[in-house]
Amino acid sequence: MTDKRLNNTIFLMFLATENYKRENGLSNEEFLRLDSQFAILNYISECPDIFDSMTGHEMAEEIEAYVSSV
User: Fold this and answer.
1) Which residue in 39, 46, 56, 65 has a CA-CA distance of 20 to 30 Å to 26?
2) Residues with pLDDT less than 50, the chain
3) How far is CA 51 from CA 14, 24, 54, 57, 64, in A?
4) In this structure, what are the phi and psi dihedrals at residue 27, rounded to the nearest 5 degrees?
5) What is the DSSP string of the chain?
6) Burial status of residue 60 (CB atoms within 10 A of its CB: 0-12, 13-18, 19 or more)
7) What angle do CA 33, 35, 37 make, to 5 degrees?
8) What is the C-alpha to C-alpha distance for residues 24 and 46, in angstroms, rounded to an integer?
9) Is 41 within 8 Å of 17 (Cβ atoms)?
10) Model-level pTM?
11) Rounded CA gap, 30 and 55, in Å?
């Protein structure tokens, strides 16, 4: 993975996380508990191209759909 792609992936992980937390009223600690249970950040890092074209709300919905399907 190139440095540019890695930086973009990390940024998308941050954006998706913040949007999901805001939409669900979660603290950092609450999100980290969910992440340890569902590997949300790993999911985002495995398919960053999907998240790259989404709005904040769509990112939160995608994570919610992922969590619900696990």
Assistant:
1) 46
2) none
3) 11, 18, 5, 11, 13
4) -85, 170
5) --HHHHHHHHHHHHHHHHHHHHHHT--HHHHHHHHHHH-HHHHHHH-HHHHHT--HHHHHHHHHHHHHH-
6) buried
7) 75
8) 23
9) yes
10) 0.91
11) 23
What is the residue type of 69? S
Two structure tokens written together for 9: 């992936």
Residues in the chain: 70
Predicted pLDDT at 19: 97
| pLDDT value at residue 61 | 97
> Look-up: residue for tokens 């590997």?
39
Q: What's the Cα-to-Cα distance from 45 to each of 24, 25, 36, rounded to whole Å?
A: 21, 23, 15
